[in-house]
Amino acid sequence: MSVKEIIGKKIREEREKKGFSRESLCGGEEELTVRQLARIELGQSLPSLIKLEYIAQVLDIDLATLLAGESISIPDEYFTMKYQLFKFPTYGDEERLAKKIQMVEDIYEKYFDYLPEEELYMLELLDNTLDYVSTKKTVAAEEIFEDFFKQLFLKNKYSINDLLLISYYAIQCQNKDYEEGIIQALEVKVLEQEISGDEYYNVELLGTVMAIAGVYLDHAEYFPIKKLADRMHVIIEATQQYSLKPLVLVYEAKYYLCVEQNVDKAKECYEWALLLARSFGDSILEANIRMEREIDSI
After folding, report:
1. Who has the most CB within 10 Å: 29, 120, 130, 249?
2. For residue 79, what are the contacts with CB-CB under 8 A and spacing of at least 6?
3. Rounded to whole angstroms, how far apart are CA atoms 219 and 178?
4. 3-class SS at 158?
5. What's the CA dihedral at 269, 270, 275, 279 to 10 degrees?
């Protein structure tokens, strides 16, 4: 039996021994859904330590019992590839998108059997998002990940995968009519999320705020952008994600031009954005900023 099967079998045995149904163990499904538990018990996915700790707490047993003598470890090389995946910007460039998509495929091929469900879910979200950005043809996020999407409105504190799902949803909303109430509800919750000690979380927190701002930008609804841009600046300064500051300045330029009709302030934002892009040596980012400035005719 594989590690997944051994741990899954042990979890099911302990759950049944304690008299819990899957539904009663999962409770409100904020920490663990019934579907996730079923996949774990069937040996189809490896639970993360966080989910194992939750199961152990509910069943009132120690973690070692659930592990059944097995250990859960992820190869160090995976984290190197994950870092590149999160920190490698595309700015919509086809070649960079193709490289990121290949990174996801390489990770699947090398580490699928070693990764817990949260990591596989993260990769699936990234893969779907990249595919949509490339082709604009993937199924709606709220349909593919229906159960997880519903949970977003029940939670106060989001995980990195929650943020990835919101980003995926928001990016799809940028290119089609969207439900204003859903985006606004998610915006409120995302803006309430605190900066973490987890670098990956902070990268995605910034990306999610940016994706929501992109919905308003692409639908020419500029008024909400300033509040989102202010939050993005705070995250950038606190987490030193300066490579994305030029994009935030472009958002601000659009706000100043279209809401406040302040051409001088918009020009200042564009000039500062271009200066930073040149200092980073990123020609694609610089070209994108110039294109947006030409669109705005300033």
Report:
1. 249
2. none
3. 9
4. coil
5. 100
H or E segment to which residue 106 belongs: helix 94-111
Name the nearest CA neighbour of 86 among 193, 167, 190: 167
**Residue whose token pair is 């409120």:** 188
Domain containing 298 equals 241-298
C-beta of residue 72 within 8 angstroms of C-beta of residue 3: yes
Phi, psi torsion values for 45, nearest 5 degrees? -145, 150
**Using CB atoms within 10 A of its CB, is residue 11 exposed (0-12), middle (13-18) or buried (19+)?**
buried
Name the nearest CA neighbour of 202 among 49, 87, 76: 87
Query: How many angstroms separate the Cα of 91 from the Cα of each of 59, 156, 181, 261?
Result: 46, 30, 28, 27
Q: Among residues 236, 247, 294, which one has the least CA distance to residue 269? A: 247
> Of 197, 221, 240, which closes a domain?
240
Question: Is the pTM of the predicted complex or chain greater than 0.85?
Answer: no
Residue 118 sits in the same domain as residue 217: yes
What are the mean pLDDT values of the chain's consecutive 10-residue runs (298 residues total)? 86 95 92 89 84 92 82 79 87 92 90 82 92 86 89 93 97 93 98 95 97 97 98 97 96 98 98 97 96 96
257 shares a domain with 276: yes
**End-to-end Cα, the chain, rounded Å:** 65
Last residue of a domain, one of 198, 220, 240: 240
Is residue 80 domain-shared with residue 224, that is, in the same domain? yes
Residue whose tokens read 């670098």: 199
Residue 15 vs residues 68, 72, 274: alpha-carbon distances, Å: 14, 20, 58
Helices 283-296 & 263-280 angle (0-180, nearest 10): 170
